[in-house]
Amino acid sequence: MENSQYVILKKEKFNDFISALSKMQKLVAPVTKGYKNYAFEEVTSGNKIALKYIPTILPLKKFFMPQRETLLEFKLDRKSTAEAVVEYEPVTIFGAHTCDLAGIQCLNMVFSERPKDYNYLTRKGKITLIGLECNEYCDEYASCHLVNASFPGGGYDLFFTDLGGYFIVHVNTSSGDDVVTAAGLLDKADTTHINELNLLRDQKRKIFSNEVPIKASLITELFDVTFRARVWKDLEERCLACGNCTNVCPTCYCFDIKDDLDLSLRHGVRYRVWGSCQLEPFARVAGGINFRKDRSARQRHRYYRKFRYPVDRFSRFFCTGCGRCTRTCMASISLKETLNELIKESEDRVWKKWL
Ligand code: SF4
Ligand code: SF4
Predict the structure, then answer these.
(1) Of 107, 297, 328, 345, which is the most buried if we count CB atoms within 10 A?
(2) Helix 295-307 × helix 230-238 angle, to 10°
(3) Taking the domains of the chain in order of start, what are their residue ranges?
């Protein structure tokens, strides 16, 4: 491991570092929210920040693609006009876990495809991302190792790992380097620090292992043989079609476009809002036909959008194993259980011998 890209922050300087960050631009970090919940909110001091936390109620996508976003303002006077709107605010996010960093990498791929999403990419350019390593599992719902998101895999400017009396910090971009220089509180890492980081990662490799009994390389095949599985019918009986699982998912990016007109019917805005494939009207098309009318088809679609379709298009899973969908589901539908059921139901299939 090359140590020129690493610096350290002693724990006694943490509060000063957070305070310095908050003076550079708006700073958000995980804070306690209600009973056993967390949310990314604005902070100015390190005391409020939760350094150990289960994934926040909403993922980081709320900063990259807000739940409601104005795209256009228009006037329908004698001369009709329309002006594009791009809403953004420079913000630093401190404390993003590796699963959430992976979620942003997925969104970056989607919104960078042609036609590029100018609003998303402009906002992304104004965000400084600082990661924070999970040294152990956050809770039993996580399945980050299965989808290769339990160790840092890029997508951040700085990345913090807690090594007891200090944090070791990976400087990954020039923006990250600028933050380190501007804060002026971090010291160069030496070989002892790098060795301690390597030791921690070795320990992590013993703790983190595939959370369901399948190799990641076989998940595509699993989904290829389970399109007509009984599991989807079971989910039909249980799912309430509330859409919570997609709202909290860091990689669900579907949205609807709507217009709001004022009472004069002359001025209005066009905006987008988060959509959900779990809601009944989502797949309704002209003529009233709905090609995913049944909840079983909608649930199946959700899983295939995480584990099958993106593999063809982006060569990666769009599940980051954060566990939010399971934590939030009022019907106790669990992602890990569903995968386990699919594996069980496919036991007699040919691919099973490859496990
Ligand atoms: S949160 Fe649960 S009940 Fe609601 S749509 Fe998702 S799976 Fe169905
Ligand atoms: S599908 Fe569930 S576990 Fe996977 S990224 Fe979405 S919310 Fe997290």
Answers:
(1) 107
(2) 120
(3) 3-207, 216-354
